[in-house]
UniProtKB/TrEMBL annotation:
SUPFAM superfamilies attached to this UniProt entry: PLP-dependent transferases
Gene3D superfamilies for the chain: Aspartate Aminotransferase, domain 1
InterPro entries, per database record: PyrdxlP-dep_Trfase, PyrdxlP-dep_Trfase_small
Highest taxon, organism lineage: Eukaryota
UniProt-recorded name of the protein: DegT/DnrJ/EryC1/StrS aminotransferase family protein
Organism this protein belongs to: Vitrella brassicaformis
Amino acid sequence: LPVILVLQKPNGSRLLLSLVRALGLDHRPLFIDLLRNFKAGGEMDRLQQFRLRPCLGLLRALKYRLQYWDPTAFDNDMNKLRVFTRGLESHGIGVPGSAAHTVNFWLYPIICPPHVHPKRMERALEAYGVFASLGSTQLTLIHPPATGSYPRPTNADALMKQVLYLPVHRHVSEEQLRVMSRAVVHAFSALAQPQPRARL
């Protein structure tokens, strides 16, 4: 429970982040596992674990967040992130779900260019100091039965293969969002250009 509550606060998560980095560890898989409260496994493993009751620590963390939730501050933070989203979309960067009536930005996905693997975009953003992630979600494709009664969700499959998650949430400052926006636009523009073929 103490670790979960620490992760609820920006200062606490920054302190834990500094400690993990000082130990030479990659913070991303550690933070993701702590927040999920279970390690990602196979498709059936995830489905089995979703049926379990959340642990007491997660329930207490939820109670804590609901007790101290400030709707005005939340709306201000969401407006800040909507401005960030419009900036990316104005440069042709797709943000899935941005047209939904209610968007809470729990995760922040972007769509990489069709010929660019998200791993390349992830490395390009790291060069700008933006640590995006391929594994921030347990979203997975459920394949239809082999009976042929249901078509394969080809659009969803193609979309999920091009998604990269940015480290964007309500506690990121406007200045940090501006820096991140420039980095994403630069990386996107550089990688979106077709690579010249080598002459033989």
